[in-house]
Write a structure and sequence with these properties.
It is globular and about 65 Å long. Strand 1 (about 150-155) and strand 2 (about 160-165) form a beta hairpin. The chain folds into 2 domains: about 1-70, Orthogonal Bundle (DNA polymerase, domain 1), CATH 1.10.150; about 100-275, Intergrase catalytic core (hpI Integrase, Chain A, Orthogonal Bundle). The protein has about 290 residues and is mostly helical. A two-stranded antiparallel ribbon has the order 1-2. The chain has 13 helices and 2 strands. The chain has helices at about 1-5, 10-25, 35-50, 55-70, 100-110, 115-130, 135-140, 170-180, 205-220, 230-245, 250-255, 260-265, 265-280, and strands at about 150-155, 160-165.
């Protein structure tokens, strides 16, 4: 259902299945007999285990989609999740690197002139300059590169296509990498459609491989490997754009968020900037 209607990824489908299975095991009742009180008891049980509100909310989202499907297909006449909400208490702010730290990482990536070094630099530059999800990066086809324009054609969540601009440093890093890309195509294959070909069932780099590449690069830059990941570079991209004047709506489009409420996790950047502006310019701020 989700795969057909929403173009959900395999990871999303697995999470959805786990969430539903966990609820069914807890309830020990036919799904047709589920009422709001059963879902509320389930939520309280998750809270008692110390589960974060954001994770509980994801579980509720899975249940909501499932019961909406049952209602739509006339298996049920109601939706027991319709009036249930989860407050996201103690929501964590996204972790990100400073602009200086990112500069150090990107400068370090330029030092290695081996094929692996060119690939590492292309990965780091692309993630930071575009804000791509790591799943989007590794599955980029070679055809996503526009030779005449500094943009990428990206297929994001729910199979939605978007155009993402990339800067001159990233474009140059890509050109250098593409010159050695064929060296990464497995010997068992004559060619590969992927930008980052590798061995494995999908034929391209795994998300874990990208994470390890970035951690090694961070250590070479004098930054703890624990402080970097593909998602932290995505957060850094978003945070730095906002702090330098970008608006939330533009950022939403570049990140590929379906709902701007998702992008609003970065509003702490705007709050800090407004506070700084007030303290610097308000005539009574120094009294």
């Amino acid at each position: 259902m989700m795969q057909v209607e929403r173009g959900a990824s395999e990871n999303t489908l697995r999470s959805y299945f786990r969430d539903l299975s966990d609820f069914i095991r807890f309830q020990e009742l036919e799904i047709e007999k589920t009422e709001a009180m059963h879902i509320n008891k389930y939520i309280e049980n998750l809270r008692s285990k110390g589960m974060q509100s954001s994770t509980i909310n994801r579980r509720l989202s899975s249940l909501r989609q499932f019961f909406q499907f049952l209602n739509k297909e006339s298996f049920r006449k109601d939706d027991p999740t319709i009036n249930i909400t989860i407050s996201l208490r103690h929501k964590k702010l996204p972790k990100y690197l400073t602009e200086s730290e990112v500069k150090d990482i990107l400068d370090t990536s330029k030092e290695d002139k081996t094929p692996q070094g060119f690939r590492t630099r292309a990965i780091a530059e692309l993630l930071y300059c575009s804000g791509l999800r790591v799943s989007e990066l590794v599955s980029l086809p070679l055809s996503s590169i526009n030779k005449d324009r500094p943009v990428l054609i990206v297929i994001g969540k729910s199979k939605k296509e978007r155009m993402v601009p990339i800067g001159i440093p990233a474009k140059k890093a890509l050109i250098d990498y593409i010159g050695v890309r064929n060296l990464f195509i497995p010997s068992s294959a004559n060619k590969s459609p992927w930008l980052f070909p590798a061995r494995g069932k999908n034929g391209y780099l795994t998300r874990n491989s990208v994470s390890l590449i970035l951690k090694k690069l961070a250590e070479m830059s004098g930054i703890s490997s624990a402080r970097i990941s593909p998602h932290i570079l995505r957060h850094s991209f978003a945070s730095h754009l906002l702090s330098n004047g970008a608006d939330l709506r533009t950022l939403q489009q570049m990140l590929g968020h379906a709902d701007i409420s998702t992008t609003q996790i970065y509003t702490h950047i705007l709050s800090d900037k407004l506070k700084e502006t007030l303290e610097r310019n308000h005539p009574l701020s120094m009294t």
